[in-house]
Amino acid sequence: MDTESPLGDATLAADLLDDYDADPAPIDDGTLPGDRFLDRELSWLAFNQRVLELAEDPALPLLERANFLAIFASNLDEFFMVRVAGLKRRIDTGLAVPTNVGRAPLDVLADISERAHELQERHARAFRDLVKPDLDAAGIHIEGWNDLDESDREVMQEAFQTQIFPVLMPLAVDPAHPFPYISGLSLNLSIRVRNPKTGKVEFARLKVPQNLPRFVQLPTKGQLRYIPLEDLIANHLGDLFPGMEVLEHHEFRVTRNEDVVIEEDETENLLQALEKELLRRRFGSPIRLEISDDMDDVTLGLLMQELRITTQEVYRLPAPLDLAGLFEITRLDRPELKYPRRVPTTSVALQPSEPTEAPDIFASISRGDILVHHPYESFATSVQTFLEQAAADPHVLAIKQTLYRTSGDSPIVEALIAAAEAGKAVLALVEIKARFDEQANISWARKLEKAGVHVVYGLVGLKTHCKLALVVRQEGGTLKHYSHIGTGNYNPKTSRIYEDLGLFTADDIVGKDLTRLFNELSGYAIEKKFKRLLVAPLHLRAGLLKRIDAEADAARAGRPSGIRIKVNSMVDEAIIDALYRASQAGVPVDVWVRGICSLRPGVAGLSENIRVRSILGRYLEHSRIFSFLNDGDPQVYIGSADMMHRNLDRRVEALVRLVKPEHLAETDALFELALDPGTSAWHLGPDGEWTRHNRDEQGKPLRDLQDEVWRQVSSRRRGGIR
């Protein structure tokens, strides 16, 4: 069983969190109601509530529920670090804060605070009342110091003295010792001590070491037993303040503004400017203070004063704080408490015709377009093999690749390095501004450059988010293009838990499109048109609007029409308004969205023909699909773009049109399954409320989409639909 979290790493919130810096003002042409958009901040919090509902679901494996608790906590941290931080920054500096629901920025901030308080309290209750008792019943105990007997305490005393005490650094606060810097997301103890000789009361802060296990294992006694590190430390404070009387100790945690803002037009060296900004990010202003619910008013007042935190930004919660630490517990080797282990299959189209033959990915792609579906179909035997064979193939002359996020031990990067060392021309477009992966991408960029890879960082003012790989191969005296366009990153680690699609094609039209696009990204070309691609920021929104309007025209003329869209986020006002108008024309519109949705479905006279569904589960639904009926000649696109301002205006994104009838049928079947009333999903109502439908009228569980897709893909054999 993989230990990665399907919804809880740095890419998740970054996927869903837009920023405020260049969002266009709300669109209002007077023909649509002013209250037609749902608030995107509250919609994001509703997404995280759906994550929490998975943690609360007793039908899910226990350690997966603990995992979803940790995911919720990690997601919310990033929401505050990026979205709330960006909103506060613009309010504090007097900049305009566009909002598509027409409310004042301070009202938006108040609503976020109210909803976030409710969710954090619910999250704490879910751990205390639901998950922790079930962990206890399964023989996994998270104990408190008061639960330990004398023998346990003796063992923990020894562990504290030998493994923990040497790395602790208590910091006094007095006229000679100013209030210390509190690093973002660190867990801390506030401590008040009294000098018995003078009676003077002093304050100290102690940071809980982040390089030690969050949960310290206790003597087994027939079951797994742990104590939170902060609880163990708190009960040995006398060792840290000898001769002093410990009066109070409480847990607290600060979230800081950790978004990165770079004025690219004003810097000569983007790499150096980003490194400087990353250093500054560590010292961003505080935006949330979490405290244990037993903290006294004197200590709280001191923290609020020193951190310049308002009452609205204080979150009083039962210990333990920072339940993202539960990720450690979920790594336990208890397979009966996790999702069943699954091994991806190799796409039938990539398998050799004879079992004894070695796979030849170029021969397979030459036979026709291949659509792969991760994690059901293996990334290692498709995308990774594609690049590794290209690196080793003497007939390959050039490889061009975009890298937005990749893993720490990436075979993709190693393949590019091997290709460069073999004398091939290799271009890697590394997006060093990928949020929360900036430092890792800087390291990869330098490693690639040292190996002789041509590394570029994209276009000024734009992030390069498209997922593209192009291989140029010499065959029979001519050059042939082999292309891969995906919906997910070139990351072998996340490919096991992210649901994504990828197209392999030897179509010369796509190859030439990618050649022109890479030239634009690495040089000064300005490409005005592509044939099988839709590319942002110049053409993608306009291309989608054109196709949405065509469906509306068909409906008005009495011809068949239909729109189906699968995305992570649906925020862009122009796209939403076009969907409203299509609905008013009679077009059936289905939106399958994982996270944020500002579209309000089911409103009479506006969107009664629009349905919105959301599916969360074992895998992160990450693919983007855009399907248009097109008078019976379906046009279906897959790619990297969500319907957010940043994707359509401030990023280089690419969608590719699927043309093979089998691939159109496959995406259509995926929509049919997701939208079927018998499939478990959340349904969005016109009031913005999401309702989970996971049982039928008799109380029986509905079909799990991801289980069903896995079953279908695993049952494929050579000669089947692929």
Description:
The C terminus is likely disordered. This protein has three domains: 145 residues, polyphosphate kinase like (2-Layer Sandwich), CATH 3.30.1840; 180 residues, Endonuclease Chain A (Endonuclease, Chain A, 2-Layer Sandwich); 181 residues, Endonuclease Chain A (Endonuclease, Chain A). With 722 residues, it is an alpha/beta fold. The relative contact order is 0.10. It contains 20 helices and 27 strands. Strand 26 and strand 27 form a beta hairpin. Strands 14, 18, 19, 20, 21, 23, 24, 25, 26 and 27 form a ten-stranded mixed β-sheet that branches. Strands 10, 11, 12, 13, 15, 16, 17 and 22 form an eight-stranded mixed β-sheet that branches. Strands 2-4-3-7-8-9 form a six-stranded mixed β-sheet, with helices on both faces.
Which descriptors apply to this entry?
single chain; 722 residues; alpha/beta; Endonuclease, Chain A; 8-stranded mixed beta sheet; disordered C terminus; kinase; metal ion binding; PPK_N_dom_sf; ATP-binding; polyphosphate kinase activity
Task: Put the structure in a nutshell.
GO terms for molecular function: ATP binding; metal ion binding; polyphosphate kinase activity. The chain has 722 residues and is of the alpha/beta class.
List the helices and strands and how they pair.
Elements: H1 10-16, H2 40-56, H3 62-92, H4 105-137, E1 140-142, H5 150-164, E2 171-173, E3 187-194, E4 201-207, E5 215-217, E6 224-228, H6 229-234, H7 237-240, E7 245-256, H8 270-281, E8 286-292, H9 297-307, E9 314-317, H10 327-330, H11 361-366, E10 370-374, H12 380-392, E11 396-403, H13 411-421, E12 425-430, H14 438-450, E13 454-456, E14 463-464, E15 467-475, E16 478-486, E17 498-505, H15 508-522, E18 533-536, H16 540-556, E19 563-567, H17 573-585, E20 589-593, E21 610-614, E22 620-621, E23 624-628, E24 635-639, H18 645-649, E25 651-658, H19 661-675, E26 681-684, E27 690-693, H20 705-714
Parallel strand pairs: 1-6, 8-9, 11-12, 12-13, 14-25, 17-22, 19-20, 20-21
Antiparallel strand pairs: 2-4, 3-4, 3-7, 5-6, 7-8, 10-17, 11-15, 15-16, 16-17, 18-25, 19-23, 21-26, 23-24, 24-25, 26-27
Helix pairs in contact: 1-3, 2-3, 2-4, 3-4, 12-13, 16-17
